[in-house]
Amino acid sequence: MKVKCISNKSDSLSTKAGYPINYQCESLIIGATFNVYSIGHWDNYMYYLLKVDHPDPDLNLDPVWFPYEWFEVIDQKIPNSWYFNFIGEPNSEQISTILGYKEIAFNFDHHVGLMEREKYHLDLFYKMKAEIDN
User: Fold this and answer.
1) pTM for this one?
2) What is the DSSP string of 15-65?
């Protein structure tokens, strides 16, 4: 699945996205395209897990969950290797559904490890990213 960035400002998001007023994600370039590595829902709001490669190394990001409203889907095909998991009733503290590669769909510790930038989990993400990108 591929998406194209159409905005990087919080004024284009619903309040459910949880971003502060006047926020701008400088790492996202309008018009840039990204492979989606997972889709998750928190509190009935959807996010895409993306890897942003920015020309300015200071704005490069390891995988980050971005609000879906900043993107338009340009390729709807999802990888055959993806899995779906219903984790629980939606609330703002915890992911409720996830669709993505096996480790992120079924191993909540992997999801947390990515967010905490733990080497083991980043290495696993980059391994899965290479498989999805090819």
Assistant:
1) 0.91
2) GGG-PPTT-B-TT--TT-EEE--EEEEETTEEEEEE----SSGGG--SSEE
